[in-house]
Amino acid sequence: MLSRLVVTLLALAGVAIAMPANADIAVIVNPANTSTLTTDELTRLYTGRSSALSAVNIAESSPLRSQFDEKGVGRSSAQLKAHWSKLIFTGKGTPPLELATEAAVIEHISQNPNAIGYVDAASVTDAVKVVLTLN
Which ranges in the chain belong to alpha helices (H)? Predict the structure, then answer.
């Protein structure tokens, strides 16, 4: 009985250690962009209720995407996917452009003054400007 408890506790500890830490997420724009941003505005951009800036997402398979969906938009990835499916089906919206990597997001933002995206805060370069940090 005790050995089974020890094995269970060790397994649980291993799962906790193996889980990725949540990263600080930097919401980024082109350095020429003078916009300021609140979390409410961020939510409107990533749910299609605002087109003030052209939103960019990281690939759905990226763990950073689900963290951003939760921290930045306040919804799970599944909720956002359902939201966008409804908007697409009814012809009322187009989801944010999806790019494969953080490097691609930085490149796109650096070349598009009206674009907004996000990356791990540790990935930010001088090619972009941080307007909001989510932790």
Answer: 2-18, 39-46, 63-68, 77-89, 102-111
The tokens 């300021």 sit on which residue?
Answer: 36
HSE at residue 109, side-chain half, CA atoms within 13 A, is: 33
Bridge partners for 58 per DSSP: 99
Q: How far apart are CA 106 and CA 125, in angstroms?
A: 8
pTM of the model: 0.83
Query: In this structure, what DSSP letter does residue 86 have?
Result: H
Beta bridge partners of 116: 29, 55
3-class state of residue 1 by DSSP: coil
- pLDDT per residue over 30-73, tens digit each? 999 998 899 999 999 999 999 999 999 999 999 999 999 999 99
List, in order of start, the domains of the chain with CATH numbers.
21-134 (3.40.190.10)
